[in-house]
Amino acid sequence: MRFRPGRFDREKTGMLRRFCPAHAVASLPEISLDDLKAEDKSLILLDVDHTLVKWKQEEFSPEVLAWIAKAKEMGFHLCILSNTRHPERLQRLATQLGIEAFRGRFKPSTHMYEMALEKYGRRPQEAVMIGDQIMTDVLGANRSGIDAIWVQKMEGPEFIGTKFNRMMELLVTSLLYRSLVTPVDAIDANPGNLPFFERAIVKQILKFGFVGGISFVIDFTIRYLLVRKISFGGEKLSNTAGRWLLDHFPTIFKFATRPDAAFMPIAVFIAASVAMFNSFLLNRSFTFKVKSDEGKGQQLAKVYIVGYIGMGLNILISSGLYNIIPGHPDRSIAVSAVCAAVIVAAWNFVGQRYFAFQVHKEG
After folding, report:
1. What sign has the CA pseudo-torsion 185, 188, 194, 198?
2. How many CB atoms lie within 10 A of CB 310?
3. Residue 49 maps to a domain
4. Residue spans of the chain under pLDDT 50
5. Strands 77-81, 180-181: parallel, antiparallel or unpaired by DSSP?
6. In this predicted structure, what is the pLDDT of residue 187?
7. Does residue 190 fall inside a structural domain?
8. Which H, E and C letters describe 239-301, residue by residue?
9. Can you give the pLDDT at residue 134?
10. HSE (CB half, 13 Å, CA atoms) of 350?
11. End position of a domain, from candidates 147, 181, 215
12. Residue 90, by phi and psi: left (phi above 0), alpha (psi -120 to 50) or beta?
């Protein structure tokens, strides 16, 4: 999952509160020291690998060195908290930066955080932890009552144990991103600022497609059974019923080249009626999240209006294609059903969203 910067509403994370940073930034130099000062932070705790410098490397970027120098000038206390198994390298890095480093029980243990707070005589709310790992840096800080800033991992290889943490991190962050705050003024100015897959209509289209997939399976299964599988007296129902329709209503069914093709619109009507009701139930509660029962009957009626128009399109498209698609009837019914479903799905989405459930009227 792509790293996404921004502030988090930690009150919305529930059980994942301890894994949630205060906010996320792409790199250490992008963190505003003025903002930290305004938040009354005076102690900055830093992770090493992929936060300050790449794993196994000892050369800091000019941007990182400049940020550290400015933090010192502004009066911040800085120190490193590291899980490293190579204390000699850690000490060399700390010496280069001219700051202290702590090693103790591995993060997310609170041990190193408490050591740093005691050393500099600071309260948890006066400190901030900056690191690239949710499962160690952020979790350890939250357990200690310290705000955490999560930075994007630097490019390059990393320790095998860290890779395991990354897998856990993917799962956690996929849930945490739901509480990521996009600035309200930016959204108001341009709704396109929202990540594509978090835009309301995109979510609704994806959910509608999921519900449509379920409805399509129901529709196709019933249609296939009626046309190709159900038999009476040793003959397929579609042939028996189709001949009756051709005999009694030749003008209406003159389009049909075979008895089963004449029966096809009837099969479509039955299958689509069942699938339509399934679509109403799932789209109301899942796609458009209509919680109130008020107007439910009216919504159902509108869904059926939209659905019956869509059904007419479905019958015209699928029956027409079934007659002209060459080859085995099994292929003809499958191709005609898929083509009709795609076109009718677009119609149904627009009709249900803007007419039946009137989502465009919601604030």
Report:
1. positive
2. 25
3. yes
4. 184-190, 361-363
5. unpaired
6. 45
7. no
8. HHHHHHHHHHCCCCCCCCCCHHHHHHHHHHHHHHHHHHHHHHHHHHHHHCCCCCCCCHHHHHH
9. 92
10. 7
11. 181
12. alpha
The C-alpha atoms of residue 217 and residue 197 are separated, in whole angstroms, by: 25
Taking the C-alpha atoms of residue 104 and residue 110, their distance in angstroms, rounded to an integer, is 9
Q: Is 295 left (phi over 0), alpha (psi -120 to 50) or beta?
A: left
Angle made by CA atoms 287, 292, 295, in degrees to the nearest 5:
95
CB within 8 Å of 354: residues ≥ 6 apart = 360
Q: Under the phi-then-psi rule, with left for phi > 0, alpha for psi from -120 to 50, and beta for the rest, what region is 57?
A: beta
Of 146, 181, 216, the residue at which a domain comes to its end is 181
Identify whether the C-beta of residue 133 lies closer than 8 Å to the C-beta of residue 165.
yes
Write the CATH number for 141.
Answer: 3.40.50.1000
Three-class SS state of 343: helix
User: What's the rounded Cα separation, in Å, for the pair 295 and 273?
Assistant: 21
Per-residue pLDDT of 158-215, as tens digits, reads 777 677 667 778 878 878 887 887 554 444 444 555 555 556 778 888 888 899 889 8
Task: Note the maximum CA span of the chain.
Answer: 96
Whether residues 128 and 203 fall in one domain: no
155 and 242 belong to one structural domain: no
From CA 296, how far away is CA 357, in angstroms rounded? 9
- Going by C-beta distance under 8 Å and a sequence separation of 6 or more, which residues neighbour residue 194? 182, 187
CA distance 91 to 195: 41
Overall pTM > 0.85: no
| Residue 315 covered by a domain | yes
Structural domain boundaries enclosing 318: 197-361
Q: What is the Cα–Cα distance from 53 to 74, expressed in whole angstroms?
A: 22
Domains in the chain, number: 2
Q: Alpha-carbon distance 46 to 131, whole Å? A: 6
Report which DSSP code applies to 136: I
Q: In this structure, what token pair is assigned to residue 194?
A: 């929202």
Q: Note whether 147 and 217 are same-domain residues.
A: no
Q: Which of 83, 92, 96 is nearest to 48 (CA)?
A: 83
Phi-psi category of residue 108: left, alpha or beta, with phi > 0 → left and psi -120 to 50 → alpha: alpha
Helices 237-248 & 259-282, crossing angle to 10 degrees? 110
